[in-house]
Amino acid sequence: MTYRKMLATGFFIFVIGCSGGDGDERPTAPVEITVSYKGRPLEGAIVQFITVQDPHPATGTTDSAGKCSLTTYRPNDGAIVGENLVTITKHEIDKTNIKPVKPEDQDLIGVSPIPTLKSLIPEKYSAPGSSGLKEDVKKGKNTFSFELKDK
Predict the structure, then answer these.
(1) Measuring CA to CA, how many Å separate 78 from each of 14, 71, 96, 139, 142?
(2) DSSP output for 46-57
(3) Tens-digit pLDDT profile for the chain (151 aa)?
(4) pTM
(5) What are phi and psi of 48, to 5 degrees?
C-alpha cells in the first residue's frame, strides 16, 4: 500500500470514528416545553437543555402557542436523561446598526457593518450559568413550563 493510500485510509477511519455513531448516544426521554413571557406564549424562542455528561444540547423552537418538543440526536427524541441546565433565547436584528451600501461600494467586502442582534427577552436566560433554570429529565414523557420574568 502506498503512503498516500495509507494516509487516505487513516483519514477515513478517523472521520468514521469521530462521527458519533449510535454507540456514543446517551439515553434520552421525550420533552415538551411551554414558554411564556409577560403572561403570553413566547413564539420563536430557542430552548436548549444542556447536560455536562454530553456535548449534545437538546434544542427546540417554540411555536405560536409557546410550545416545542426537544431534539438531541434525532427529531423529537427529547433531552438526555438526568439534570439539565436550561437556556432560552429570542433575538431580532438590531436595525439601528444597518446602513445601506452605495452602488459604488458593492464590490467591496465589509462596507456595511455586520448587524447586531437584539434580545427580546432578558439576557440572563441566554446562558446556563445565569438563567437560573434547570430541570431533571426522567425516563418517560416530561413536560416543563417556563414563565420568564424581567427581573
Answers:
(1) 29, 5, 38, 10, 9
(2) EEEEEETTEEEE
(3) 443 344 333 333 333 334 445 568 899 999 999 999 999 999 999 999 999 878 789 999 999 999 999 999 999 999 999 999 999 999 988 777 666 666 666 666 655 556 788 899 999 999 998 999 999 999 999 999 999 999 7
(4) 0.74
(5) -130, 135
Q: Which domains does the chain have, with CATH numbers?
A: 25-89+123-148 (2.60.40.10)
Going by C-beta distance under 8 Å and a sequence separation of 6 or more, which residues neighbour residue 11?
none
Contacts of residue 13, Cβ cutoff 8 Å, sequence gap at least 6: none
CA angle, 132 then 135 then 137, to 5°: 165
Distance between start and end Cα atoms, the chain: 66
Q: For residue 70, what are the CA distances in angstroms to 34, 44, 103, 142?
A: 11, 14, 45, 10
Name the 3-class secondary structure at 149: coil
